[in-house]
Each structure stands twice: as structure tokens, then as C-alpha cells.
Amino acid sequence: MAKRVYIETYGCQMNVADTELMFGVLGRAGYARADDPAEADVMLVNTCAVRDNAEQRVIGRMGELQRYKQPGGVLGVVGCMAQRLGPALLERVPRVDLVVGPDAYRNLDQLIGLAAGGQRTADTGFREWEHYEDVPPVREKGPTAFVTVQRGCDYRCTFCIVPYTRGAERSRRLEDVVREVQALAAEGTSEVTLLGQTVNGYHDGRHDFADLLRSVGSVDGVRRLRFTSPYPTDFTPRVIEAMALTPAVCEHVHLPVQSGSDAVLRRMLRRYTRARYLEVMEQLRAGIPGITFSTDIIVGFPAETDAQFEETLSLVAEADFDDAYTFKYSVREGTPAARLRDHVPADVASARLDRLIEAVRANVRRKNVARVGQVHEVLVERPARRGDLMLGRTRTNQLVLLDLPAGAAGEYHRARLTGTTGSTFTGAVVAPALAVL
Ligand code: 5AD
């Protein structure tokens, strides 16, 4: 009988895409997919290393998963935490048999074989050429899909572990990306999100990100095109023009700012000032009317003063973000920031985080309340967790609950926003006749 593999995914969208890739690698090797760890011969946890609490959660989860381990079964850690800790993870967590980093998924079948044979194994080699081009990812069929276009990162933001877990930056060839998107569109996927650590810096040697947007945006059947995450200063005029002139490109950008203080940005080795960041937003707003912005913000970076934190608070209002993910700085061993002096005490960082969350929430609520009454195009994605409503998304990235049957997944509707919790919306379909457009 085919071996069954269960994969649990933590962290970013690229991990979601990498899990699909691993199902591709293992499916090709004859594995069947298990949706329940109790039914699996092989359990893999695809991990994140970006903050300590993400790693602590995984350690805890390994303890739970080991109970499902079959005789001869394998429990593996893959992804960024595996890469960061390497073979040391085998020593630290005795129940783990397998540790595999993001560049070694091609070897998963052999590595699992070794581990199943009782040989605890780690492969955390970097392979800069690796794009898994020959491995079709196994995705859940649906209206939306992630497509990795760039792996690794050459920036050196001082807080960030990713360059050390995902290695050097490299871009897939444009033709390969387009071919994958064509296949997705042929299967009924109409929204594609391009993934890369600094995705707007995409370059395959011949084509830049502007070329990529135009090419992917003109694939038959692609009606919405998104990307994440861009680096603020990599929005060249060419890229903004391509966004403006490619109808599929959605009016939303996730634009991580990290801090509103120039002094902190400098210590983070971010390559922009507050003013430059705001200028990039202005250029995007001018080129793409109606564009919305979400961001990432870190508080409590080493030596962040009260005054510097206040500058972050004032940026939330000035930039007028539509959404923000907020984090307390987490020391990552081996990153340059870990060696900086004057680490901020935990209670101070927590208090700052609370204030920041409040400021973000107030801004988002005010903007969302003002949106009630507007009519938006909504792509219906999936059943909502509660009730029997369907969850959809506007081009500007607002989540909308609609009273539609489960069969409506994948449909486009024009909907009026009828109410908001402050973060998500309820909506009512206004022109069902347009749904088939
Ligand atoms: N501590 C806290 N947050 C971090 N991020 C990255 N590294 C750290 C860290 N060491 C945040 C950044 C990034 C997001 C994915 O995670 O805001 O944009």
C-alpha cells in the first residue's frame, strides 16, 4: 500500500506553496496524502523561523504529533526552522527523525527512507539553482493560487533570519512562471498571487517584474493578479506603469514598513527613510487610483526609544494603512541585530505593541466604516468558518461575507458592503446577472 504523508504548515504564504511542492515531490514518489496525522506514515511540519514564538509553537506541536507516530513511521521538521537549527534539532528534540531545509525538498523521498530505516537524518544544504521546475505542485483546486516566482533573499535587514534560512535570491524564468499560470487558469483558477521575498525585485536575467506582471496578467482566464511581498524601494516607474496598465493587477499592495523612525530604519538596514517610503506610497496612489495598503511593523527593535516608537505611531496615521500586521521584535541568533546593544525590555515592547495595535485598529475601523455602502467586485473564495455564508474578497483585499450557496466558490459578483465589524464586511449581491461575466 502507498505510504501516507501528512504535512502541517506554519508561517508565510511561501510555506503554503512549499507544502504544495512537497506533495508534488512525494506524490511523484508514490505517496498518498493523509489529512489526519493519525492516518499517516510520515508526518512533516513545515516551519517558520521568523520569530521565537513561531518556533516554540512548533516544538509544542511536535510533542503532540509524536503520539501518532506509527512503528517505522517518520516525524520530520522541514522549512525555515529546520534550516536554522539543522542537525542540532535532532539532538534537541529526540522524537524528530528528519530535518530538511527549503532547498532539499527534492530529496525528501530518499531522506524519509533513511529516517524510516532508523537513521535520523538532516539535509540543510543550500542549492542556489533550485527552483523545483520539474515538480508540479499539488494544490487544492480552487479560484486562487500561490505561485512562487523568486526564492531566497539578498537583502540583509538586520532583524531577519530569512536570508540565512532560504539562501541567495534567484528568480524563476518568466516562461516557466507563465506556463504554470496557464495550467492553473485552464483548471479554473482566476486569481494568482506571485510570491517572493522581495518580489518586485524579480529578475530572471532577461525580464524584470514589470515584464512578469504584464505576461502573467495577459494569461487567458487570469482575472486577478496579486503579489507579496514587495520591497518599498524596488517599485521602479516601469513596475508602477505595468501595474497601472495591467487590468488584472489588483488595487492592493502589502508594503512592509517595519518602523516609522529613520534612526530605527537605519539600524534595521532598511534602504529607505520614512519620507521615501511615503513617497513610494504616493507614487502608487497616483498610478493606481483606489489602491489600498497593508504593512508589517516591528516594535521594540534594539535601542528603539519612546520618541522613535511615537514616530511609528504617527506613521500609521500619516500613511493611512488599510491593514497592518504588528510584531514585537524577536531576537534571532545569527542576525546582525542580535549583536546590537540596548535591547528593549519585554514589558516596554509589550506596552508599545498594545498601543500600536490600538492605533492600527482605530485607523482600519474608521476606513472600513467609510466603505459601507460602496459596491465592489467580490471573488467568492470559500465557505466562511461560521454560519453558512461564503467568504469573498474585493480587489482591494477586503473580506466580505455573502449569502451565497457553496457552489458559488470561484464566482465574481458585484456586492454592496452592508456592514462591517471594523475589519471584515457583510455584503449583498447587487447584480447577479454579471456573475457569469
Ligand atoms: N522579530 C519580529 N518580527 C520580525 N519580522 C521579521 N523578522 C522579525 C523579528 N526578528 C516580521 C517583519 C516581516 C514579517 C514577515 O515578520 O515585520 O515583514
Q: CATH first level of the largest domain: which class?
A: Alpha Beta
Q: Structural class of the secondary elements? A: alpha/beta
Rounded to the nearest angstrom, the distance between the terminal CA atoms is 46 Å
Share of residues in strands? 15-25%
Trace the largest sheet across and list its strands.
2-1-3-4-5-6
What do you see in this structure?
It is a single chain. The chain has 437 residues and is of the alpha/beta class. The protein has 13 helices and 19 strands. The chain has 3 domains: 4-123, 3-Layer(aba) Sandwich (Rossmann fold), CATH 3.40.50; 144-370, Alpha-Beta Horseshoe (pyruvate-formate lyase- activating enzyme), CATH 3.80.30.20; 372-434, OB fold (Dihydrolipoamide Acetyltransferase, E2P), CATH 2.40.50.140. The termini are far apart. Bound molecules: 5'-deoxyadenosine. 5'-deoxyadenosine binds at residues 50-51, 159-160, 256, 258, 296, 298, 327, 329-330, 332. The site of 5'-deoxyadenosine has 12 residues, from β13.
Q: Which helices and strands, and how do they pair?
A:
Layout: E1 4-9, H1 13-28, E2 32-33, E3 42-47, H2 52-65, E4 74-79, H3 80-85, H4 88-92, E5 98-100, H5 108-116, E6 121-123, E7 144-148, E8 150-151, H6 162-166, E9 170-171, H7 174-186, E10 191-195, H8 209-217, E11 224-228, H9 237-245, E12 252-254, H10 262-267, H11 274-287, E13 292-299, H12 306-319, E14 323-328, H13 346-371, E15 375-383, E16 390-394, E17 399-402, E18 412-420, E19 425-429
Parallel strand pairs: 1-2, 1-3, 3-4, 4-5, 5-6, 7-10, 10-11, 12-13, 13-14, 17-19
Antiparallel strand pairs: 8-9, 15-16, 15-18, 16-17, 18-19
Helix pairs in contact: 7-8, 8-9, 12-13
Bound molecules: 5'-deoxyadenosine.
Residues 50-51, 159-160, 256, 258, 296, 298, 327, 329-330, 332 line the site of 5'-deoxyadenosine (5AD).
